[in-house]
Amino acid sequence: MPDGAEPVLDVRGLKTIFRTRGGEIHAVNSVSFHLRPGELLGVVGESGSGKSVTMMSLIGLLPSPPAEVRAGEVLLGGRDLLKLSPRDLQAVRGAKVGFVFQDPMTSLNPVFNVGNQIMEPLIKHMGMTKAQAETRAAELLALVGIPDAKKRLKSYPHQFSGGMRQRVMIAIALACDPDVLIADEPTTALDVTIQAQIIELIKELRQKLGMAIVWITHDLGVIAGIADRVMVMYGGQVVEQAPVRALFANPQHPYTRALLKTVPSLTGERAARLEVIEGQPPLLSGVPVACPFRARCAHAHDRCDAENPVRRAVDGKPVGQGHDVACHWSPEVANG
User: Fold this and answer.
1) Nearest to 104 by CA among 182, 162, 47
2) Which of 155, 234, 250, 271 is the residue whose CA sits 20 to 30 A from 66?
3) HEC string of the chain?
4) Binning pLDDT at 50, 70 and 90, where does residue 225 land?
5) In this predicted model, what pLDDT tens digit does every residue of 131-152 receive, in sequence order?
6) What is the pTM (predicted TM-score) of this model?
7) What residues contact residue 147 under an 8 Å CB cut-off, 6+ apart?
């Protein structure tokens, strides 16, 4: 995939808030990123960093109220999704953007068999007849590795294992050949063996279908094996973005460096004690005016309290095109 390819998804300055009795929660703060055709973007960060809220904001999956997308552009196929009517946006979901949620048991409807749930978007978005949709549904189940696919269309979610339910969710997300697939921690609720199978499945489907994928996770180990680029989020902001190899070889943000030190290393030697990131994630009760990581950062100084850093290029490429970071501190200066 050439670097100069036009983005299939281009997000600019996205801001999302939640209205609560205690005031506004600024969950997503000026997030910008793009996704090229066939690319896999890994989005990492601890719980509460804004990963899922960002992606759900793109296609109107957050309940409103209390959620409100306050600013930004989400360009898909030349259209700004944030300006679409609810009806037009509903047509985009499933048809142009597929979404795989973390827990398939709560995402699948327990009172309908899986065949009906896969057929629904095919009939609604693709205009298929029931017979055509049933044939395509069986093909999709086979594509995601479920044996006896035609027979299993009549099965209900509770008749599948956790890994098989997640495969059904992936089949539903792929039903209308979307341009973008968003996978929100799709392996978190599964055991390690099944996690590996789902990851391999996504890699195979990506190669076969050529779709662009956003993979949300807190697991940097997973990202290392599947992503082209990585976007690190903290406090509702993008704090670092880079090609996957550059991020692991030369992390620039103190938060990224701390995250990498929490990943076990299998070198054959006695493992060193894993580090932890002391402190708690920030409260997002106001518009950020300081660095959100300052209270947990060993390199924080006066400027971090006074000014929220903007993303700057690390490798000379324009911000968003190569390796960039939002931090006042520089490891090169510190080590120089």
Assistant:
1) 162
2) 234
3) CCCCCCCCEEEEEEEEEEEECCEEEEEEEEEEEEECCCCEEEEECCCCCCHHHHHHHHCCCCCCCCEEEEEEEEEECCEEHHHCCHHHHHHHECCCEEEECCCHHHHCCCCCCHHHHHHHHHHHHHCCCHHHHHHHHHHHHHHCCCCCHHHHCCCCHHHCCHHHHHHHHHHHHHCCCCCEEEEECCCCCCCHHHHHHHHHHHHHHHHHHCCEEEEEECCHHHHHHHCCEEEEEECCEEEEEEEHHHHHHCCCCHHHHHHHHCCCCCCCCCCCCCCCCCCCCCCCCCCCCCCCCHHHCCCCCHHHHHCCCCCEECCCCCCCCCCEECCCCCHHHHHC
4) confident
5) 999 999 999 999 999 999 999 9
6) 0.90
7) none
How do residues 161-182 score in pLDDT, each as one tens digit?
988 999 999 999 999 989 999 9
Query: Which amino acid makes up residue 197?
Result: Q
Structure tokens at 297: 């950062």
d(CA 143, CA 167): 9
Token reading at 198: 């789902």
